[in-house]
Write a structure and sequence with these properties.
Largest sheet: 7 strands, antiparallel
Number of helices: 6
CATH architecture of the largest domain: Alpha-Beta Complex
Number of domains: 2
Order of helices and strands: EEEEEEEEEEEHEHHEEHEEEEHH
CATH superfamily of the largest domain: Naphthalene 1,2-dioxygenase Alpha Subunit, Chain A, domain 1
CATH class of the largest domain: Alpha Beta
Radius of gyration: 22 Å
Shape: globular
Mean pLDDT: 96
Strand content: 25-35%
Bound molecules: FE2/S2 (inorganic) cluster, fe (ii) ion
Length: 346
């Protein structure tokens, strides 16, 4: 089950151009391309004539021409040309999905187009703000999307999954504060007077103890956004003075492809040493390694789930954030399903 009336990330801005891009979301094949003015378009990736994927066709002006018999569809999905005849058969159309380009990503609304609310796209200002330097990636993931949410929201995994970069026993020793507010869940950890993890030593050059923060926010249905960093211990970071520290923001969004696969988009941003390209060279490989390790872990989990479907899982205290996030998502899906059933019955 998926939440439908919401924005999902469909692609990086750089992935969508004048060549059709095929991608499946929530079990539905979609084709993405750009109009001549650069505006992104998303259509059902199935020609209404004989089912060829429209992604095998070509973009003509603002329209998409099927690669089989040349039927051509405008950005609204309406067939505007049938080669060899002057009339268009009634009903010759494909579904068109609302799309928006924001914060380096193309967002798609897979639910009722009439309910597409542009203001619901989360504010990820660090993704494309002038004061931030970024890196990021896309991974097709052979695991269901909620496993990616789980791994992001449970910081205790960094000790074991990321020993070379973010790992630290101090995370286990400090349970998070978990707060549900305004339809989101905030998960906060402050680790005071601890050794900096390897990646923050590279980024901040810390030699002594640090105050370290891991501040996560779950933005349903799949968003996990972070404010993470460290400052020299005792210099006031918990009270708001980060002048002796480094602040990083990360955005992690997954989009279900099907029941046990998803698309994973992440971006890492820093707002310090912006002109230091050499720091990119030293920092970014570890960042990419870290998020690749998450993908490896959840894909291995999915294989474990598939090998023993329905096997009992044991919960521990550290699962509190992930259990709350799953509950919130489940309640949203339940509410949406009930609303759709009610309107269908009217
Ligand atoms: S299948 Fe697309 S035009 Fe015939
Ligand atoms: Fe991780």
């Amino acid at each position: 089950m998926y939440l439908r009336d919401c924005w999902y990330v469909a692609a990086w801005d750089r992935e969508v151009g004048r060549e059709p891009l095929a991608r499946t979301f929530l079990g539905q094949p979609v084709v993405l391309y750009r109009r001549e003015d650069g505006t992104p378009v998303a259509l059902e990736d199935r020609c209404c004539h004989r089912n060829l994927p429209l992604s095998m066709g070509s973009v003509q002006g603002d329209n998409l021409q099927c690669g089989y018999h040349g039927l051509t569809f405008d950005p609204a999905g309406t067939c505007i040309l049938v080669p060899g005849q002057s009339t268009i058969p009634p009903g010759a159309r494909v579904r068109s999905f609302p799309v928006r380009e924001r914060h380096r990503w193309i967002w798609i609304w897979m639910g009722d187009p009439a309910r597409a609310d542009e203001t619901a796209i989360p504010d990820l200002f660090w993704n494309d703000g002038p004061d931030w330097r970024t890196t990021g990636d896309y991974h097709p993931v052979a695991a269901e999307y909620r496993l990616l949410t789980d791994i992001q929201l449970d910081a205790t995994h960094v000790t074991y999954v990321h020993p070379d970069t973010l790992g630290s026993d101090a995370v286990q020793a400090t349970p998070p504060e978990v707060e549900r507010k305004d339809g989101r869940i905030a998960i906060s950890r402050w680790l005071l007077g601890v050794e900096a993890p390897p990646i923050w030593k590279v980024a901040g050059g810390f030699a002594g103890p640090v105050d370290r923060w891991i501040l996560a926010t779950f933005v349903p249905p799949t968003g996990c956004i972070f404010d993470i960093g460290a400052a020299e211990a005792g210099t006031g970071a918990p009270e708001g003075d980060r002048s002796r520290g480094i602040t990083n923001r990360t955005s992690h969004f997954s989009t279900p492809e099907g029941e046990s696969s998803c698309h994973y988009f992440w971006l890492f941003a820093r707002n310090y040493r912006l002109d230091d390209g050499d720091l990119d060279t030293r920092l970014h490989p570890g960042v990419h390694q870290t998020f690749r390790e998450d993908v490896d872990a959840v894909e291995a989990q999915q294989r474990g789930i598939d090998a023993r479907p329905g096997a009992v899982q044991i919960d521990v205290n550290a699962d509190k954030p992930t259990i709350q996030a799953r509950r919130l998502l489940a309640s949203l899906i339940e509410g949406e399903t009930a609303a759709y059933s009610a309107s269908a019955a009217e």
